[in-house]
Amino acid sequence: MAHYETPEWHPAFEEYCETIFELAEDDVDVIQARVAERLEVSRPAVSEMIHRLEAEGLVTLKGRSIELSPDGMDLAERVVRRHRLAEVFLTQVLGLSWADAHAEAGKWEHVISPLVEQAMMRVLDDPTTCPHGNPIPGSDYQAPPTKALAKIEVGQRFVVTRITEELEFTEGLLDFLEGSSVIPGAEGVITASSPDGTTTVEIDGNHVGIGGFASERILVTAA
Q: pTM for this structure?
C-alpha cells in the first residue's frame, strides 16, 4: 500500500506563504495590509502569524516588506504548484467552472500527496500553467513578453496570456471572464477605451467591456 506523506507544515503556514508568493508574483507590495486583504482576516491576526512565520524561518522582514526565505519559497512553490495543478484537473477532467475550480483547489492544495501529484501530472500531460495562464512552479514554462490589456491601443490585436491571481479573488470576475471568452489563448481586438478606464474588446464576435481594475491585470501579447 502506498504511504501517504503528511504535510510538513500546518495549512495556515502554507496559506500565508502561498499568499506572499502570489502577491510578489503580481508585483503587489507584500505588506501586512495586503496580506490581510487577500486572506480577509484582521491585521492583528496577520501580524501575529507573520511573526510566527519569521520565528520558523519562513519569512524575513525588511521594514514593512515581507519576503519569503529560501525555506518559505520552497513551501510556497509546493503549495502553489498543487493549487494550480488541481485547477487544471478540476476544469479539464471534471468540467468545473474557473470559479468553482479555484475554490476547490484551495482545499486540495493542502492534501495532495506527492504520489497523487505525479499521477495528475501524467494524466494532464505535464501542464505548465493553470487555466488562467499563471505558471505552475517547477514546470518548464517560458514567459512571453506581455503587457497589460489596458496598455493596448484601440485597433490593435492581442492574445490573452494571463489572468493574474489578484483577479481570481475578485467576486464574480472569473465567471465573467470565462463566460466572455477572455481566456488564455483567445485572440481579440481593442475596439474602445473609455475615460473611466473601461477597455472594450471584441473576442469571437462579442464585444465585452472590461473595467479598469481588471484590464490593468489581464496580461496579453501582441497578435
A: 0.91
